[in-house]
Design brief:
alpha/beta; 2-enoyl-CoA Hydratase, Chain A, domain 1; 6-stranded mixed beta sheet; 4-stranded mixed beta sheet; 11 helices; globular
């Protein structure tokens, strides 16, 4: 069985980390395979990332990394870092919403993979940990950028410096999870949200994702100018014509992405 599975239905792609016996920890070509799966979703309208079994992702395979350290293989370790960077930036650059369905432990790189998604739904049994310092390592996969923007600097500092485990309830309270649901409802609720995203007009939805990302560094005038650029593109689209026609005809719009 492949360690990364990708299936598409109704324009929603579900990517599953599938190494349940190792809590879906990254080893071998898993990083590259996940990156390839993400890059293949451009025709989809929403993406879900989840884990098989009882974990979302336990991060990097420590046994594998210890082997690289023992052999002094800094070049191979650097390739792991580069792959992680490419995964996180690809999620940010995809024109479609990416939802993390966090079904269990999300630790280290697995935690930051979840944080990089546009929306996070967690099972009530999920747990999060920036566990890098527990094994003497520094956070990667964008953790020092992502976490403070969601939880604030002080909470981020505490999580990153202690590596302590945060349960789903606390994760929701501090803002790193958007919704907590019973474990049995995780995938149905995630798929329901993905379907709502997928039903929307792709051009303005892609613009919304880019505009929200830019808002972190733009001043108000720059942000309004960016909104105007996206709005003009949307205004001239066939989907805007369809949306307005559907409004007057009192029917659901059928957006085609053009």
């Amino acid at each position: 069985m492949p360690f990364i599975e990708s299936t598409t239905s109704n324009q929603i792609t579900t990517i599953t980390l599938n190494r349940p016996d190792k809590l879906n920890a990254f080893a071998g070509s898993m990083r590259e395979d996940l990156l390839a799966a993400l890059r293949a979703t451009t025709a989809s309208r929403a993406v879900i990332i989840t884990g098989a079994g009882r974990a979302f992702c336990a991060g990097g395979d420590v046994e594998f990394m210890a082997g690289l350290q023992k052999n002094g293989d800094v070049t191979a370790f650097r390739k792991l870092l580069d792959a992680g960077r490419d995964i996180i930036t690809t999620i940010a650059e995809l024109p479609v919403p990416v939802i993390a369905a966090v079904n269990g432990v999300a630790a280290g790189a697995g935690c930051n993979l979840a944080l990089a998604c546009d929306y996070r739904i967690a099972a009530d049994s999920a747990k999060f940990s920036e566990s890098f310092v527990k094994i003497g390592l520094h956070p990667d996969w964008g953790g020092t950028w992502l976490l403070p923007r969601l939880a604030g600097r002080s909470r981020a500092l505490e999580m990153l410096m202690t590596g302590r485990m945060v349960d789903a309830k606390e994760a929701h309270a501090i803002g790193i999870v958007d919704r907590v649901v019973p474990a049995a409802e995780l995938l149905p609720e995630t798929e329901k949200l993905a379907a709502a995203f997928a039903a929307g007009p792709p051009i303005p939805l892609a613009g919304i994702k880019r505009a929200l990302a830019a808002s972190a560094s733009n001043d108000l005038r720059s942000q309004i100018d960016l909104e105007s650029e996206h709005q003009l593109r949307a205004f001239q689209s066939n989907d805007a014509r369809e949306g307005m026609a559907a409004f007057f005809e009192k029917r659901p719009a059928e957006f085609q992405g053009s």
